[in-house]
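Hey, I was hoping to borrow your eyes for a little while. No rush at all, and the record is pasted right below.
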Amino acid sequence: MHLFGAFHADRLVNAGNCRIIYIKIIDITQRIIESLLSISLQYKKRKFTAINKGDQVMGKKFGYYILAVVFFIVLWGNAASAVAFSDVGNHRGAGHINRMAAEGVLGGYPDGTFKPDRNISRVELAAIINGIFNNQEKSSRKFRDVAPKDWFSGEIAKAVAAGYITGYEDGTVRPGKFVTRQEGYKIVADAFGLSGLASDSYAAFSDAGAVQQWARNSTGVLLDRGYIIDDGSGKLLPRKFMTRAEAVELLDRAAGLIINANVASFKDKTVEGNLFVRSSVSALENISVNGDLYIPQSALKQNIVLDNVRIKGRLYIRNNKLDSIRIKGGETGGIIIAGQSARVHLELEGSTVSGTLGVFAASFINVGSGSRVKKVELEAGASGTVIEAVPGVQISNRSKNIIVNGVAIDEGTVFTTTDSLDLINVY
């Protein structure tokens, strides 16, 4: 869905791997003027004053950035086209920017620029992340500085539902606030399911003391994975504002290889980094992923089979639909099931999970014959989960309404499945 009305493709030009779409905007001028007037009136009425001067809110420039983000999201929605930016050509982040634009997860300004060195705001960063994950779930949480009629309210609601944006103690979420590098690292780590990992790699930098406690693990983990690149200065500059180019480079490295086209199968490949499945793919066959594999909401519109897929890192599943993912053979370093209302049907057949299978949302899990799972951890959000498992699976339950092999399991119980499908050993 596009803001301000319909867009029509005037002509499509193929230039190598870059498809440049020229867009004719129908009846858009009047709508933009009306929207600008609305923003102006809201600005005069609310004055967009900062609750805390330390927040570095944009103040009088807020309206301009709101307009920038509007166009950012307007152009961001077309996954079939790439955008050529007039101010990106020789920029150090050009490769990352152009690739993400080609994948259809970000766009630029109406004058054909991207403005890579402009600071990025919280809502702009959220919009890109929502685009990558195709987040659809929306939180009902209310914030004092976000009205339901605000065009960006949906992006904030999606970010909150996904768990990588939270509000402040004063009841605000500050969508227009510029993001510092360490804030950006924390947001990205949370969005990509890395917040539970620990690392002190940040300590190797001369300004490590400037990294605040809440950002240390996130910064270290992103450094370990090569998402943050040392520029040779020996400094992180964690409190410096993050630019749009820096944000896109970070997210491009984190996303890795993106499957964007709807294909029957993706097979016989080795992926050096992460693999991100944004489209509907029926099967992944004979794949080696040397990073993590992400299957977000956009991909789980049908049954998916992972046949002899070896994942060095973890498999991340986020879904709000009742679909199934079947894993035949292969091995993964761990599995994370998340989402407010996942209801994922996960079947393991002769496969190995060498790490933890973490369940953060209600799911149906079948650990079948020949499968080995080191440990299953049911978190608070997993209420309603049903598990059928072969003997020898250790399960730690921190949730309510859990059924394992037909037996109701109390919260706080740690146990191992036994030879009898209707019995468990509790300890």
